[in-house]
Each structure stands twice: as C-alpha cells, then as structure tokens.
C-alpha cells in the first residue's frame, strides 16, 4: 500500500502490518517526531542503496534521486514494520504562471517516506512515482475538468452522493476508451444509446480501459 501523509499514523500502519501487507507512506511535519527522526537518520547514516533517473517532457526537465536508509526496529518501535527511510530529491525546471505568461522556473524538492518493504531504490522509486501519477491524474480530472472544488452542493449526503456520481462518470469514460474526459462527456451527451449498450452489454466491449489526465 502506498499513501500520502494523511495515513502516516501508528494505528493505520499497525493495521496494515497485522493484515499481512506492506506500506510506503509520506512523512511530513504533521508527525514531527517521525519527521525529525528521518532527518537524523539521513544526516548520520550511510545509504544502503540509491537510484537516479532523468527525463525531459513538454519542455520540462526533472532529475530524481532516490536514496534509502535501512533502520532497525528499535529506532522506531512505535511504527509497526518500519524498515527503511526513503528520500526522494527532485530537481529541474517546470512551467509556472498562467498560459499567456508561462515561463520555466528552477525547482528543488526533497521528500521523506517510511516503508516496511525490503525493495531496491529503483523499485521503491517506481512504486512511489506510480502512486502519485495515479493521484495527480484523478485529482486533475475531478478538480479541473469536473470542477469538484467549486461544487455548490452542501450539507447532508449531497457532497458524498455527487462525489459518487462524478467518480461514476470517470469510470464510464475510462471504459469507453476515450483519450480525455471532455471527449467522453461529449460522447455521452450525444450517444446515449451507445452508453446504454456499454453499461448493459459489457460482454461485447473490446475497447481498452484508458487512464487520462
């Protein structure tokens, strides 16, 4: 299981381990003692493995250095299964500002993670990046395309019900094999018969499930 800092809780990680699973969770200052302990490990210990990758995409350049530090069970006894502190350092350039005034700016970020896995730095880096790619895609679709943050429905069960409706739309769009959500919404608005066929006759569907921004 990979999760953000919201789930970096002792009880949550204990339940994951008790269930026979493993975890990778983000460490942030909402768990200050853990955050400071992670920093101390990085400053005082030698890394057990590291991995570096670089990419250039749409004018942006990013270099990611993933470093892992093995820790003993005695170091963080209250954090069930903790075996590694992971540090991911990202540097490069990315677009900033509104579309008409966009410019490339330099950035440097460092993030800490806690994990119960005995994986290599390259495998951990791949798992962490995969998690955030999924998160970013889903949040972008809901927040930007479906304007979820500005939803006018408030109180009672309305927010939860409309959240389920939006997720249902996203799921149908991906099943349809469209490249973007706006394209799927236009198709659903004008081709209700095909949408009904998709919903009630899935056995004949041969289109791949899409994952889009």
If you had to describe this structure to a student in words, what would you say it looks like?
With 213 residues, the protein is an alpha+beta fold. The protein has helices spanning 10-18, 32-44, 121-145, 158-176, 181-190, 192-200, and strands at 2-3, 24-27, 49-57, 60-70, 84-96, 103-115. A six-stranded mixed β-sheet has the order 1-2-6-5-4-3. The two termini are 23 Å apart.
pLDDT below 50 for ≥5 consecutive residues: which ranges? 207-213
Question: Overall pLDDT, averaged?
Answer: 77
What is the count of DSSP helices, taking H or I runs of 4+ residues? 6
Shape: extended
- Helical amount among residues, as a percent range? 25-40%
**Proportion of strand residues:** 15-25%
Task: Return the string of H and E elements.
Answer: EHEHEEEEHHHH
Placed side by side, the strands forming the largest sheet appear as: 1-2-6-5-4-3
Q: How far apart, in Å, are the first and last alpha carbons?
A: 23 Å
Q: How many beta-strand runs?
A: 6
Radius of gyration, taken over Cα atoms and rounded to an integer in Å = 21 Å
**Strand-pairing-aware structural class:** alpha+beta
Largest sheet entry: 6 strands, mixed
């Amino acid at each position: 299981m990979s999760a953000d800092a919201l789930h970096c809780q002792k009880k949550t990680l204990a339940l994951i381990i008790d269930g026979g699973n493993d975890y990778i969770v983000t460490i942030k200052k909402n768990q200050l003692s853990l955050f400071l302990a992670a920093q101390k490990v990085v400053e005082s210990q030698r890394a057990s493995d590291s991995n570096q990758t670089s990419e250039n995409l749409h004018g942006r350049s990013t270099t990611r250095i993933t470093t892992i530090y093995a820790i003993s069970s005695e170091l963080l006894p209250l954090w069930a299964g903790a075996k590694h502190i992971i540090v991911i350092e990202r540097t490069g350039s990315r677009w900033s500002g509104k579309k008409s005034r966009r410019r490339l700016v330099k950035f440097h970020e460092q993030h800490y993670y806690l994990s119960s896995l005995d994986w290599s730095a390259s495998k951990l880096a791949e798992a962490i990046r995969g998690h955030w790619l999924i998160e970013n895609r889903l949040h972008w679709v809901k927040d930007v395309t479906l304007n979820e943050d500005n939803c006018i429905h408030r109180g009672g069960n309305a927010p939860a019900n409309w959240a389920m409706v939006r997720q249902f739309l996203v799921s149908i769009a991906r099943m349809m094999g469209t490249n973007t959500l706006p394209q799927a919404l236009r198709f659903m608005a004008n081709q209700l018969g095909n949408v009904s066929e998709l919903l009630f006759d899935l056995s004949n569907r041969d289109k791949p499930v899409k994952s889009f921004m």
